[in-house]
Design a protein that fits this description.
single chain; 376 residues; mainly beta; Neuraminidase; 26 strands; 9% helix; globular
Length: 376
């Protein structure tokens, strides 16, 4: 049987012109929401602070001034600030709880270190988590950086002595052509190994350098790792025991697709301003979190800022997709537009969403509840 090349030519041309069609269909587009957002209270902070929750306490860490505090939900007050034993804290851009009164801070600048500390700020152990055999390459090559980063990683990710975290990449990987999206660190031995890889659409298209290459992970009660990729409507479920993975639809009700920056895979440093504008003016998925108490999943959606300018306030609206335990779409709630909400964590007391006012240097967080509409 012969193939009619003349017949195939228009199809190939369409795929070339519209590469975003490589994404799987978003079956949640246009669905009505059966949930609503209820505000509890606001808390004002003196400086930019990273928040994390260990199941009991909300930890607040100001990495610029190296201050660690706990927040009490009942009294809505903070404990006195504690100085941690971390050196050069300004290099550490994330803090995550890995157990009761145990935290890890991560560096994503030059040192690629992870610090295990307790709730009193005492340094228990330090790990080097630089990409295997890549550190010298990274320092000499500006086109590619591949390092671990905890951006958007929420919840307890410690299982059987391993700390699981999301990784990200700029451009192409040098490790046998693979683009890794998560890794795990053995807290006893300090050995690190990669776990999952980015979906194929990241290998085929240019998603604007770094911006769309921040995955987020969480774990559910079934010991599955749930991975959210900024450019994918689907969530990826990875079983840490069988190492099998499957995708489930978990898209937004607000848009159909996210177009790639281009169908050319190569990343060019001179296009960094165009990459930033592309990210700021398009939808993107962010944090994925599991609510153990209510058995729900929350997925962040960053909205386009069509009026974005590099010199202006980088405010973007944000919504949260709510999924049930079987990943059925329950609804999508928009956070108030009066504050620049940029990330959130889940606690037993509700969703804690952080905000930053870049122009006026105001920082804080708001505690919300998710409730089902009365008619449902």
């Amino acid at each position: 049987m012969t193939t009619n090349k003349t017949f195939l030519l228009p199809i190939v041309l369409l795929l070339y012109l519209f590469p975003c069609q490589a994404q799987k269909k978003n079956s949640n587009f246009g669905k009505k929401s059966t949930v609503q957002l209820e505000k509890q209270f606001d808390v004002t902070l003196k400086s930019r602070t990273f928040l994390t929750y260990d199941g009991t306490d909300l930890f607040c860490w100001d990495n610029i001034h190296n201050r660690l505090q706990k927040f009490d939900f009942k009294s809505r007050t903070f404990t006195p600030p504690i100085k941690s034993e971390i050196k050069n804290p300004y290099e550490y851009e994330e803090m995550v709880c890995v157990g009761r009164d145990s935290l890890i801070t991560f560096s994503w600048l030059e040192n690629y270190n992870a610090n295990l500390i307790n709730g009193k700020g005492k340094l228990l152990k330090q790990y080097n988590i630089a990409p295997k055999n890549h550190l010298n390459y990274l320092k000499s090559n500006t086109k590619f950086i591949f390092y671990c980063d905890l951006y958007g990683t929420i919840g307890k990710t410690l299982h059987n002595g391993f700390f699981y975290y999301a990784t990200r990449h700029f451009g192409s990987s040098t490790d046998k052509g693979k683009l890794f999206s998560s890794a795990r660190l053995n807290l006893k031995s300090g050995v690190k190994e990669y776990v999952t890889e980015f979906p194929s659409i990241y290998d085929k298209y240019n998603w604007g350098g770094a911006a769309y290459n921040y995955p987020s992970i969480t774990f559910n009660s079934e010991k599955q790792m749930i991975i959210s990729y900024p450019a994918c409507h689907q969530l990826y479920l990875y079983n840490i025991y069988t190492k099998k993975q499957k995708a489930v639809n978990a898209g937004s009700s607000l848009f159909k697709t996210i177009p790639p920056f281009s169908n050319k895979k190569e990343i060019k440093a001179e296009l960094k301003d165009e990459y930033t504008k592309y990210f700021q003016t398009n939808y993107a998925y962010g944090i994925i979190a599991y609510d153990k108490k209510h058995k729900l999943y929350y997925r962040q959606v960053r909205h386009p800022n069509k009026n974005w300018r590099r010199s202006a306030n980088k405010t973007r609206k944000m919504s949260i997709i709510v999924l049930d335990e079987k990943f059925h779409f329950l609804g999508e709630v928009k956070l108030p537009a009066d504050k620049n909400y940029h990330r959130f964590i889940v606690t037993e007391h509700g969703i804690v969403a952080s905000y930053i006012d870049f122009n006026n240097r105001k920082y804080g967080f708001t505690v919300f509840n998710i409730k089902r509409n009365k008619k449902y």
